[in-house]
Fold each of these.
Amino acid sequence: MIRFGPSGNSESFYKEGHKSSVEMPAWLCEKGLDAYEYQCNRGVNISKDMAQKIGEEAQKSNIFLSIHAPYYINMASPEEEKRINSKRYIIECMTVAKWMGARRIVVHTGSYSKVDKKWALETSARLFDEVLREADNLGLGSIMICPEVLGKNNQIGSLEEIIGICKANERLSPTIDFAHIHAREQGSLNSAEDFERVINTLENSLGVERVRELHCHFSRVEFTKGGEKKHWNIDDTQFGPEFEYLAEVILKKGMKPVIICESRANMAEDALKLKKIYNQIAKGMQNEKSTCD
């Protein structure tokens, strides 16, 4: 089934008096959501006890868990120490995922602003292989690493680059951030056909089954010539892309993705708006089919 949830904790969670992410799974369940991407984007700073408690609450509330790894990972840094540290951060994040019962970790591969692009891609792919071998030795082989499509032109993260990295190792699965694609390609997602082009590209490269349960990020986005500038909320309609088009493609193809909303401050509220849009389109398509029958 398709799942919806936020990246991190909405401001409203704290305004309602909640203080700990342990309370998030039940809070999300009450609102009608069923996914949660725990944020380690500024560092892996959670205890085993806390991670296990979040995992227990998520299991009770049927919340699908994923974790976002630190933003400062750079698998293609020209400095060897930073590459070694990047591998360590991923392993630390996978360890937390194991404690928590999370199935996926989302990773920013890095940047080629200071290195040759070909070297950056080859080095990143090699380091991911090394991480997976180390993960196996540590009993972390069940955790899926999901390199993310990124929104800035100097980042390792175009759709084609992430497909290439994942194609090299079937144990890697992409995180498709549609806001990032829209920003990086200067506003390219403006119809259901545009979104279907993205999904078809993925299916043709990685296979239909591998793409069926895709990990996705969605929000509106502001961009410049350099790509992504700022994520916005679903009600900020001066920015794209439109979720209706993606919902149509998901339904047409019978996909069962996880949709993580990355709106600013209101990610849980906006995840619910995305779910409502999806359900409305699903109902409309069902009614249309019934009429045709």
Note: The beta strands are 3-6, 35-39, 64-68, 104-107, 144-147, 175-177, 215-218, 220-224, 227-232, 258-261.
Amino acid sequence: MTLQRNIAANLASQVYATLIGILLVPLYLHYMGAEAYGLVGFFAMLQAWFSLLDIGLTPTVAREVARYRGGALDALGLWRLLRVLELLFWSLGSVGAAAMWLASGWIASDWLRVESLPQSEVLAAVQLMALAIALRWTAGLYRAALTGDERIVWLSGFNASIATLRFGGVLPLLIWVGATPTLFFAYQLLIAAIELAWLVRRAYASLPTLPPGKRAGWQLAALKQVLRFSLSIAFTSAVWVLVTQTDKLVLSRVLPLAEYGYFTLAVTVAGGIVTLTGPIGGALMPRMAMLEARGEREHLIRVYRRATQIVVVVAASVALALALGAEPLLLGWTGNADLAHQAAPILALYAIGNGILAVAAFPFYLQFAKGNLRLHLIGNAVFVVLLIPTVIWAATHHGGVGAGIVWLGMNLLSFVAWLPLVHRKFEPGLNRRWYLHDIAGIAAAAAAAGYAVSLTAPPSSSPRAIQLGFVALIALVVGAAGALASSAVREQLRTWWRPAQAQTS
């Protein structure tokens, strides 16, 4: 299985799951209502916080399975590790589910600001969430084993199928049976159980058979051998959860549930930027690490800068389209003028913040290639220390817009103040060229083009198709302007153009 095919399958699966989750939101809002959809956002946020229990073990599983395939670990050692991790995952999942179940009454009555939904519905929904989240988290162990075995194409298809069932399969129930939170989350629990059972079956089938007469057993020594590596990953993972979920946790307490639903909608749409650009980084890091190992410094920097320009073009076209066309997009997409008016400022702020975040990830790729993450860990620690109290204050006093301002401001501060320190440490002399040539010129051309198009915004009374077409036009014009301003994209276009021209001559 080629690396390119795995990357393409993974990207297609992620984009599909993100799009189907976003595109069906208007139907959820229509049948369930904004307040019930706020529970869906609360469910997604709890899943992210639950991942803190992982302590870096799922990436470790993938690594150990890959090491077995490379001959560094035998079948017995792999199975012993898997057995003790199964015990750990199922135990932690059970404890987490029990804790959430016991707290469900307090969450439903005191934490969430429910205005119209029956209290019994909210209570039952939170209890079902607890079970579904625990099952989905446990499934991560077996998904990691399949990832390490490079069953990426199968796993991508499976993830897309589960996303279809999770997001789309519930609609017939909402339409013809009942649009209640209890029914919605009971269905999510069923799909989580099916997902876990199928992944267990597939992972067991793909793993090696034990030598005759050998049993894996429960040996904690197998866990001790990988615990140091997993804990180093756990820190970065925990920081990511704290950075991306603190605002959502605070706002679930501060905002009325219906308004929290609007906030969730805006943040979900803005999150598509990271989904689109993330797989590029996933493919870039091993290539840069290989070039660093070979001592091909100039080639590494060339790849680094070209990839930066490509991500800037992609991130700018999406982020500016979402920011400049936030209200027309939401109005044309949902048909709900009140929702569009409330969520548009939040969408604009988070879209620009996520666009900056997508580009700001590049110095981490450089540190990864160099094999030195010390500055990355320090930077993340400082970011969290500054972000959490600030976002708590802003969200408490200014709601979703306040959280959005902090998110944009903190990402911009990191981009301007911290990233130059990373470049100065690992590649002196790169910083000025990277900022001015690879980012600033492209971003300026894209922003100018987007602003010019935004001046022709249709009135709010225009048909929904016109509103959506306007946003698509912004994305197209911004993408074209950014591509023309990028030397890397122009060079790639010339590379494609010459063979095509030769074939026609």
Note: The chain has a mean pLDDT of 80.
Amino acid sequence: MPDTLDCVVVGAGPAGLTAAIYLARFRRRFRVVESGESRAAWIPRTRNHPGFPDGVRGKTLLGRMRRQAERYGAEIVPGRVETLRPGRGGFRVATAEGALSTRTVILATGVQDVAPAIPGLEDGVARGLVRICPICDGYEVTGLSVGVLGCDDHCAREAVFLRGYSDDVTFVHLGEDPLPGETLRMLKRAGVKLAESAVRGVTIEQRRITAFDFEKGEPRSFDAVYSALGVTPRTRLAVQAGAKLDASGRLVVNEHQETSVPGLYAAGDVVRGLNQISTAAGEGAIAATDVHNRLRNKP
């Protein structure tokens, strides 16, 4: 079947681009379809990714990975996959530009952040005033005044985590329901301050998040604010194909990153909740290698 690809990779973040590097060097016929919405592109500078002691911008890292994949012949095209249907011997991948027939698929679709209602949010993220991942950059707020926006017990635990870096952490509770007593006690034990009044307005200034204007109490300001409102995994295509999800809404995969649908793989944030560049890249490599081994009798 000369028109059938060996693989289609959906997404061009760290997981998808790593898969592309490996598939290209395995000399496989494949295509990467990217929507241009990689979460990694938001990163102003990551300093916990191995090999970059001075840090690296998210867009810079993605650009280097893309050039590396294309150097070995990877075809990376803009587009959005609309439907994914399993069939005999593979999958049919439909985009606005046309349909693709492929033996395997690697989903590297990632997650979408539940963004707080902060005017100028993107600019705040770019300047490091609004942050999303304390595992990635908690070190950078060491000793600073930190606000954590959240609505439930899981969000409160992120505030407790950040107490390992700062003595001045405030949990800004945005939920409609009161926090459970055990959560309140957990915050108190950890030394996390609590602001439960509804937020009326936020101003992002040059070096601080200022004028956190609460309905009750005085306005507050922070050196940095973390959004702990969670993420939404991009699993629509996988669900279309019949793949199973775990309790958190992420895709269930085996040790080779294969989902419950044979030949359908997934890598990166759409799979598990650590949301790290290094783990996403590793999973992309694992998935691509298994695809190659699966098709070794199909040169």
Note: Helices lie at 14-25, 58-71, 121-126, 134-137, 153-162, 181-190, 236-241, 277-294.
Amino acid sequence: MKKYLVVAALAVAVVTPALAADYYVALRVGGGGCEVMTSQPTDTKKYKMMGKYSSEADAKAAMAKMAECK
């Protein structure tokens, strides 16, 4: 029984961070369109933050609707 609890705890510890991932849409300054990133852009000279989303699909859908990204 202990073995199953340990395995379950390890599985939750490994899977939980992947489910909590955030996605960011960043506009490349100077042209070049937008891209989806898994970490928040920190270089403000290269990227302008356009939004934070809970899934990659949401980020891509929002990016498709942004006039700046086309």
Note: The chain has a mean pLDDT of 83.
